[in-house]
């Protein structure tokens, strides 16, 4: 049995950001997954229950409102659920998500794409069976955060805020930009996360707090997605979590 974790961001017909997928392309990808017999699960479900023969975790970083407006109806049509990772400082703040990399869109006709969902909207997704995980407080490059207290807050306070506002546990995290190191992973473990997702690298093996995802980008058609899934599909076992991470650290002598 295996599962693949996909990483999306915004869904838009016109926004030319490389991480954004058009609704038509997204629909074609979902239709291919459904035709191939994939069952969609949240990240927590995929890690705590025996997965189906083919399980896909569809995740969205940044909690763009376009996910609610454009992705949700398409996912509903296929009976798919998803996981959204929210940068909690921005939710209900009235601020656009103009961090490093997104700041180039501020003051342009596309800046409305940087609007996050509200807590009420995220709660509605939870009621539909979706999962909302943490994407830190402010979306920093975590390995560059030198202040230990700030790093702990970025991870711990964001997790606590998700749990408090949504009324459900928050065991999952997505590292902004996919950036992490040993110190970041240890802080995430101390903050109470069971699993954290990143992007694949050539040097690190999969760990519960460094689980690679398949990135899906604007130019990816079904053929490209199929090839990426084939290359990156990894075996999932039910119940993996923080204990496995601690064992992995011990076996590796505390080295990243």
Structural class: alpha/beta
Question: What Rg is obtained from the alpha carbons, in whole angstroms?
Answer: 17 Å
Shape: globular
| Strand percent estimate | 5-15%
What's the number of helices?
8
Number of domains: 1
The main sheet comes to: 7 strands, mixed
Number of strands: 10
Q: Roughly how many Å apart are the termini?
A: 28 Å
- Average predicted confidence as pLDDT: 89
CATH superfamily: Glycoside hydrolase/deacetylase
Instruction: Provide the CATH architecture.
Output: Alpha-Beta Barrel
Q: Which stretches of 5+ consecutive residues score pLDDT under 50?
A: 236-256
| CATH topology heading | TIM Barrel
Helix content, binned percent = 25-40%
Could you spell the SSE succession in H and E letters? EHEHEHEHEHEHEEEHEH
CATH class descriptor name: Alpha Beta
Q: Can you offer a commentary on this structure?
A:
The protein has 256 residues and is α/β, with parallel strands linked by helices. It has eight helices and ten strands. Helix 1 (23-35) runs parallel beside helix 3 (65-78) and helix 5 (148-166) packs across helix 6. Residues 236-256 have low confidence and may be disordered.
């Amino acid at each position: 049995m295996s599962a693949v974790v996909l990483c999306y961001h915004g869904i838009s017909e016109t926004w030319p950001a490389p991480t954004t997928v058009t609704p038509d392309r997204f629909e074609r990808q979902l239709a291919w997954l459904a035709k191939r017999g994939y069952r969609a699960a949240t990240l927590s479900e995929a890690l705590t229950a025996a997965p189906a023969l083919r399980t896909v975790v569809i995740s969205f970083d940044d909690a763009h409102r376009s996910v609610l407006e454009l992705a949700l109806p398409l996912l509903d049509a296929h009976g798919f659920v998803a996981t959204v990772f929210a940068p909690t400082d921005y939710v209900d703040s009235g601020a656009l998500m103009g961090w490093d990399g997104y700041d180039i869109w501020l003051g342009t006709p596309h800046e409305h794409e940087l609007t996050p969902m509200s807590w009420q909207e995220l709660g509605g997704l939870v009621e539909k069976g979706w999962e909302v995980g943490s994407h830190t407080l402010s979306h920093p490059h975590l390995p560059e955060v030198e202040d230990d207290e700030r790093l702990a807050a970025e991870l711990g306070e964001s997790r606590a805020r998700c749990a408090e506002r949504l009324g459900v546990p928050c065991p999952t995290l997505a590292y902004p930009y996919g950036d992490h190191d040993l110190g970041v992973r240890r802080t995430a473990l101390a903050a109470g996360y069971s699993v954290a997702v990143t992007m694949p690298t050539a040097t690190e093996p999969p760990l519960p707090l460094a689980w690679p995802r398949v990135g899906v980008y604007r130019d990816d058609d079904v053929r490209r997605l199929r090839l990426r899934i084939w290359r990156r599909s990894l075996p999932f076992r039910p119940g993996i979590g923080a204990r496995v991470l601690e064992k992995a650290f011990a076996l590796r002598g505390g080295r990243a």
